[in-house]
Specification:
Blueprint (H helix, E strand, L loop, with lengths): L6 H10 L20 H34 L16 H30 L6 E8 L2 E6 L4 E5 L3 H6 L22 E4 L4 E7 L4 E5 L4 E5 L5 E5 L7 E7 L12 E6 L1 H15 L1 H12 L5
Parallel strand pairs: 1-5, 4-10
Antiparallel strand pairs: 1-2, 2-3, 5-8, 6-7, 6-9, 9-10
Length: 287
Protein backbone atom coordinates (compact mmCIF):
# COMPACT_ATOMS: atom_id res chain seq x y z
CA UNK A 1 0.00 0.00 0.00
CA UNK A 2 1.53 3.28 -1.11
CA UNK A 3 -0.50 5.62 1.05
CA UNK A 4 -0.49 5.26 4.81
CA UNK A 5 -4.29 5.26 4.71
CA UNK A 6 -6.29 7.95 6.37
CA UNK A 7 -8.42 7.32 9.43
CA UNK A 8 -11.79 7.05 7.62
CA UNK A 9 -10.34 4.79 4.96
CA UNK A 10 -8.86 2.52 7.59
CA UNK A 11 -12.05 2.60 9.65
CA UNK A 12 -14.23 1.85 6.62
CA UNK A 13 -11.93 -0.95 5.55
CA UNK A 14 -12.05 -2.44 9.03
CA UNK A 15 -15.83 -2.22 9.17
CA UNK A 16 -16.26 -3.92 5.82
CA UNK A 17 -13.71 -6.55 6.66
CA UNK A 18 -11.32 -5.65 3.89
CA UNK A 19 -7.78 -5.63 5.12
CA UNK A 20 -5.26 -4.08 2.75
CA UNK A 21 -3.54 -7.41 2.19
CA UNK A 22 -4.94 -8.71 -1.07
CA UNK A 23 -2.40 -10.30 -3.35
CA UNK A 24 -4.03 -8.95 -6.49
CA UNK A 25 -5.15 -5.42 -5.78
CA UNK A 26 -4.72 -2.57 -3.40
CA UNK A 27 -8.04 -2.62 -1.60
CA UNK A 28 -7.68 0.95 -0.36
CA UNK A 29 -11.17 2.42 -0.46
CA UNK A 30 -10.29 6.05 -0.16
CA UNK A 31 -9.04 8.43 -2.85
CA UNK A 32 -5.30 8.74 -3.33
CA UNK A 33 -3.63 11.98 -2.14
CA UNK A 34 -1.73 11.80 -5.45
CA UNK A 35 1.60 13.21 -6.54
CA UNK A 36 0.95 16.93 -7.14
CA UNK A 37 0.03 19.93 -5.00
CA UNK A 38 -3.35 20.10 -6.77
CA UNK A 39 -4.10 16.42 -6.20
CA UNK A 40 -3.36 16.90 -2.49
CA UNK A 41 -5.70 19.90 -2.43
CA UNK A 42 -8.40 17.78 -4.06
CA UNK A 43 -7.79 15.03 -1.52
CA UNK A 44 -7.92 17.53 1.35
CA UNK A 45 -11.18 18.91 0.00
CA UNK A 46 -12.61 15.42 -0.26
CA UNK A 47 -11.66 14.70 3.37
CA UNK A 48 -13.09 18.03 4.58
CA UNK A 49 -16.42 17.23 2.89
CA UNK A 50 -16.31 13.72 4.28
CA UNK A 51 -15.91 14.96 7.85
CA UNK A 52 -18.67 17.56 7.38
CA UNK A 53 -21.01 14.79 6.16
CA UNK A 54 -20.03 12.55 9.07
CA UNK A 55 -20.70 15.34 11.58
CA UNK A 56 -24.11 16.08 10.04
CA UNK A 57 -25.02 12.39 9.96
CA UNK A 58 -24.01 11.87 13.58
CA UNK A 59 -25.98 14.92 14.70
CA UNK A 60 -29.14 14.09 12.71
CA UNK A 61 -29.22 10.39 13.56
CA UNK A 62 -28.45 11.04 17.24
CA UNK A 63 -31.31 13.51 17.48
CA UNK A 64 -33.65 11.23 15.54
CA UNK A 65 -32.89 8.14 17.61
CA UNK A 66 -33.12 10.12 20.85
CA UNK A 67 -36.55 11.49 19.82
CA UNK A 68 -37.86 8.10 18.75
CA UNK A 69 -36.78 6.45 22.00
CA UNK A 70 -37.70 9.14 24.51
CA UNK A 71 -40.94 10.41 22.96
CA UNK A 72 -42.54 7.10 22.09
CA UNK A 73 -46.26 6.36 22.50
CA UNK A 74 -45.72 3.63 25.11
CA UNK A 75 -44.03 6.23 27.33
CA UNK A 76 -47.16 8.31 27.12
CA UNK A 77 -46.04 10.84 24.51
CA UNK A 78 -48.89 12.78 22.91
CA UNK A 79 -48.37 14.30 19.43
CA UNK A 80 -48.65 18.08 19.21
CA UNK A 81 -51.08 18.49 16.29
CA UNK A 82 -51.33 22.25 16.67
CA UNK A 83 -47.70 23.10 15.79
CA UNK A 84 -47.54 24.13 12.13
CA UNK A 85 -45.07 26.99 12.26
CA UNK A 86 -42.08 27.90 14.40
CA UNK A 87 -40.13 30.96 13.24
CA UNK A 88 -37.12 30.28 15.44
CA UNK A 89 -36.74 26.68 14.19
CA UNK A 90 -37.12 27.77 10.56
CA UNK A 91 -34.44 30.45 10.89
CA UNK A 92 -32.07 27.92 12.46
CA UNK A 93 -32.60 25.24 9.82
CA UNK A 94 -32.07 27.79 7.06
CA UNK A 95 -29.06 29.65 8.45
CA UNK A 96 -27.09 26.61 9.58
CA UNK A 97 -27.10 24.83 6.17
CA UNK A 98 -26.27 28.12 4.41
CA UNK A 99 -23.24 28.54 6.67
CA UNK A 100 -22.19 24.94 6.01
CA UNK A 101 -22.48 25.49 2.24
CA UNK A 102 -20.47 28.72 2.38
CA UNK A 103 -17.84 26.94 4.48
CA UNK A 104 -17.62 24.24 1.80
CA UNK A 105 -17.68 26.65 -1.16
CA UNK A 106 -14.61 28.62 -0.09
CA UNK A 107 -12.05 25.76 -0.16
CA UNK A 108 -13.79 24.26 -3.25
CA UNK A 109 -13.38 27.47 -5.21
CA UNK A 110 -9.75 27.83 -4.13
CA UNK A 111 -8.97 24.31 -5.36
CA UNK A 112 -10.88 24.84 -8.60
CA UNK A 113 -8.94 28.02 -9.39
CA UNK A 114 -5.65 26.30 -8.53
CA UNK A 115 -6.46 23.42 -10.89
CA UNK A 116 -7.40 25.70 -13.80
CA UNK A 117 -4.36 27.96 -13.64
CA UNK A 118 -2.37 26.63 -16.61
CA UNK A 119 -0.03 29.63 -16.82
CA UNK A 120 3.76 29.43 -16.87
CA UNK A 121 3.95 25.86 -18.11
CA UNK A 122 7.31 24.59 -19.33
CA UNK A 123 6.23 21.68 -21.51
CA UNK A 124 3.10 21.07 -23.58
CA UNK A 125 1.82 17.66 -24.58
CA UNK A 126 -1.10 17.13 -26.91
CA UNK A 127 -3.14 14.07 -26.05
CA UNK A 128 -5.46 12.65 -28.72
CA UNK A 129 -7.93 9.87 -27.98
CA UNK A 130 -8.63 7.24 -30.62
CA UNK A 131 -10.72 4.09 -30.65
CA UNK A 132 -8.84 2.60 -28.78
CA UNK A 133 -5.51 4.12 -27.99
CA UNK A 134 -3.86 7.39 -27.00
CA UNK A 135 -1.50 9.58 -28.95
CA UNK A 136 1.02 11.74 -27.12
CA UNK A 137 2.72 14.60 -28.98
CA UNK A 138 5.41 16.67 -27.30
CA UNK A 139 4.71 20.06 -28.88
CA UNK A 140 7.67 21.77 -30.64
CA UNK A 141 9.92 18.74 -30.30
CA UNK A 142 8.63 16.60 -33.15
CA UNK A 143 8.42 13.67 -30.75
CA UNK A 144 5.16 11.78 -30.71
CA UNK A 145 3.93 8.26 -30.08
CA UNK A 146 0.93 6.03 -29.83
CA UNK A 147 0.24 4.32 -26.54
CA UNK A 148 -1.71 1.07 -26.79
CA UNK A 149 -2.60 -1.83 -24.54
CA UNK A 150 0.46 -3.99 -23.80
CA UNK A 151 0.82 -7.28 -25.64
CA UNK A 152 0.41 -9.58 -22.60
CA UNK A 153 -2.94 -8.04 -21.64
CA UNK A 154 -4.08 -8.00 -25.24
CA UNK A 155 -3.36 -11.71 -25.73
CA UNK A 156 -4.93 -12.70 -22.40
CA UNK A 157 -8.13 -10.73 -23.05
CA UNK A 158 -8.99 -12.63 -26.24
CA UNK A 159 -11.95 -14.98 -25.96
CA UNK A 160 -10.71 -18.50 -25.32
CA UNK A 161 -7.09 -17.41 -24.88
CA UNK A 162 -6.72 -19.92 -22.05
CA UNK A 163 -4.56 -17.40 -20.16
CA UNK A 164 -5.48 -16.59 -16.57
CA UNK A 165 -5.68 -12.77 -16.36
CA UNK A 166 -4.68 -12.99 -12.69
CA UNK A 167 -1.26 -14.12 -13.87
CA UNK A 168 -0.74 -11.09 -16.11
CA UNK A 169 1.01 -8.23 -14.28
CA UNK A 170 -1.08 -5.03 -14.38
CA UNK A 171 -3.69 -6.75 -16.52
CA UNK A 172 -5.46 -4.18 -18.75
CA UNK A 173 -3.51 -1.41 -16.97
CA UNK A 174 -0.28 -1.59 -18.93
CA UNK A 175 0.75 -0.04 -22.25
CA UNK A 176 3.54 -0.41 -24.80
CA UNK A 177 4.64 3.25 -24.62
CA UNK A 178 3.94 5.12 -21.37
CA UNK A 179 3.65 8.89 -21.29
CA UNK A 180 7.09 9.97 -20.07
CA UNK A 181 7.11 13.25 -18.14
CA UNK A 182 9.65 15.11 -16.02
CA UNK A 183 9.07 15.70 -12.30
CA UNK A 184 9.27 19.24 -10.92
CA UNK A 185 8.11 20.67 -14.25
CA UNK A 186 4.80 22.35 -14.95
CA UNK A 187 3.34 20.36 -17.81
CA UNK A 188 0.37 21.50 -19.85
CA UNK A 189 -1.92 18.97 -21.48
CA UNK A 190 -4.07 19.75 -24.50
CA UNK A 191 -6.73 17.10 -24.88
CA UNK A 192 -8.73 16.26 -27.96
CA UNK A 193 -10.03 13.19 -29.79
CA UNK A 194 -10.10 11.90 -33.33
CA UNK A 195 -13.35 9.93 -33.41
CA UNK A 196 -15.60 9.85 -30.33
CA UNK A 197 -15.44 11.33 -26.85
CA UNK A 198 -12.79 9.81 -24.59
CA UNK A 199 -11.64 10.92 -21.17
CA UNK A 200 -8.06 10.96 -19.94
CA UNK A 201 -8.07 9.96 -16.28
CA UNK A 202 -5.07 9.55 -13.99
CA UNK A 203 -6.16 9.50 -10.34
CA UNK A 204 -2.66 10.25 -9.00
CA UNK A 205 -2.77 13.59 -10.85
CA UNK A 206 -6.41 14.26 -9.92
CA UNK A 207 -6.97 14.87 -13.63
CA UNK A 208 -9.99 13.52 -15.47
CA UNK A 209 -10.59 15.55 -18.62
CA UNK A 210 -12.79 14.78 -21.59
CA UNK A 211 -11.08 14.45 -24.95
CA UNK A 212 -13.67 15.66 -27.46
CA UNK A 213 -13.38 15.71 -31.28
CA UNK A 214 -13.19 19.31 -32.52
CA UNK A 215 -12.47 20.74 -29.08
CA UNK A 216 -9.30 21.24 -27.10
CA UNK A 217 -9.47 20.88 -23.34
CA UNK A 218 -6.64 22.00 -21.12
CA UNK A 219 -5.17 20.58 -17.94
CA UNK A 220 -1.86 20.85 -16.16
CA UNK A 221 0.20 19.11 -13.52
CA UNK A 222 3.52 19.46 -11.74
CA UNK A 223 4.66 16.22 -10.19
CA UNK A 224 6.66 16.59 -6.99
CA UNK A 225 10.36 15.83 -7.40
CA UNK A 226 10.30 12.84 -5.05
CA UNK A 227 7.36 11.11 -6.71
CA UNK A 228 9.21 9.37 -9.55
CA UNK A 229 7.69 6.16 -10.86
CA UNK A 230 4.80 4.67 -12.77
CA UNK A 231 1.19 5.76 -12.27
CA UNK A 232 -1.80 4.25 -14.00
CA UNK A 233 -5.11 5.44 -15.33
CA UNK A 234 -7.81 4.62 -17.83
CA UNK A 235 -10.16 6.11 -20.37
CA UNK A 236 -13.12 7.25 -18.29
CA UNK A 237 -15.66 7.83 -21.04
CA UNK A 238 -17.57 4.91 -22.52
CA UNK A 239 -16.09 5.22 -26.00
CA UNK A 240 -17.02 2.01 -27.77
CA UNK A 241 -16.37 -1.70 -27.81
CA UNK A 242 -12.80 -1.60 -26.55
CA UNK A 243 -13.25 1.23 -24.08
CA UNK A 244 -11.82 -0.98 -21.33
CA UNK A 245 -8.66 -1.63 -23.31
CA UNK A 246 -7.08 1.82 -23.60
CA UNK A 247 -5.27 2.32 -20.28
CA UNK A 248 -2.88 5.13 -19.45
CA UNK A 249 0.57 4.77 -17.92
CA UNK A 250 2.44 7.81 -16.69
CA UNK A 251 6.20 7.40 -16.33
CA UNK A 252 7.52 10.20 -14.10
CA UNK A 253 11.27 10.68 -14.41
CA UNK A 254 13.80 13.15 -13.04
CA UNK A 255 14.50 16.16 -15.26
CA UNK A 256 17.90 14.75 -16.33
CA UNK A 257 16.41 11.34 -17.16
CA UNK A 258 13.63 12.98 -19.11
CA UNK A 259 16.07 15.10 -21.13
CA UNK A 260 18.10 12.00 -21.97
CA UNK A 261 14.92 10.15 -22.99
CA UNK A 262 13.78 13.09 -25.11
CA UNK A 263 17.16 13.25 -26.88
CA UNK A 264 17.04 9.53 -27.61
CA UNK A 265 13.48 9.82 -28.93
CA UNK A 266 14.45 12.70 -31.20
CA UNK A 267 17.33 10.70 -32.63
CA UNK A 268 15.02 7.70 -33.05
CA UNK A 269 12.06 9.49 -34.57
CA UNK A 270 13.86 12.04 -36.77
CA UNK A 271 17.25 10.56 -37.64
CA UNK A 272 17.57 12.87 -40.68
CA UNK A 273 16.76 16.04 -38.75
CA UNK A 274 19.11 15.03 -35.95
CA UNK A 275 21.94 14.28 -38.36
CA UNK A 276 21.36 17.64 -40.05
CA UNK A 277 21.41 19.44 -36.71
CA UNK A 278 24.59 17.61 -35.75
CA UNK A 279 26.20 18.57 -39.09
CA UNK A 280 25.24 22.22 -38.62
CA UNK A 281 26.59 22.21 -35.09
CA UNK A 282 29.84 20.60 -36.30
CA UNK A 283 30.47 23.27 -38.96
CA UNK A 284 32.79 26.09 -38.04
CA UNK A 285 30.96 29.40 -37.75
CA UNK A 286 30.99 31.22 -41.10
CA UNK A 287 32.34 34.75 -41.49
CU1 LIG B 1 -11.81 5.97 -24.71
Amino acid sequence: MKNPGSLPAVATAAVLGFAAQSAHADWALNMTPGITAVSRSVYGLHMTMYYICVAIAVFVFAWMIYSIVVFRKSKGAVPDTTLVHNTKAEIIWTVVPVLILIGAAIPSTKTLIQGEDATGTELTIRITGYQWKWQYEYIDTGVSMFSTLDRDSNVARQLGSGIDPNGVPNYLLNVDHPLVVPAGTKVRLLLTAQDVIHSWWVPALAIKKDAIPGFINEAWFKVEEDKLGLYRGQCAELCGRDHGFMPIVLDVRSKADFEAWMKAQKALQQPAASAEAAAVAAQPAAG
